[in-house]
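Q: Sequence in, structure out?
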Amino acid sequence: MSDSKPRQPKTITLEMLQKMFVNIFEKTDWNMTGEMLWGYFFTHHEPEALVKAKDLLVAQGYRFVDIYQLDEADDHGNRPWWLHVEKEETHTPATLDARNDELYQFAYDQGLDCYDGMDIGPIQEAEE
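A: Exactly. Output:
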């Protein structure tokens, strides 16, 4: 008997990403044709699995940001642990959709509860 869990359904669609990009173009002055700082988020009910995932993602060129637990519970009364990594990348909706597919697969392969999506911001220049 296998204890493998079902694959997480893809909740971030290409259409959603296309709308997100339009919104960014309309509401910011960010240069989306250049590198931006992309944050990626994973959840799991135990932090140890996220530590292992962090090490694998860092080996793939992601920068570790944090592993943390929120103070408040989610809709199911759980308080999952979160892994936040980031990477400076240039994306279009199509390339971000492909990256999300990779990260959904990574979460599944690592037995994590969830790949929870991404955020974006401009790359901050280091203070002199």
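The CA atoms of residues 20 and 93 lie 8 Å apart.
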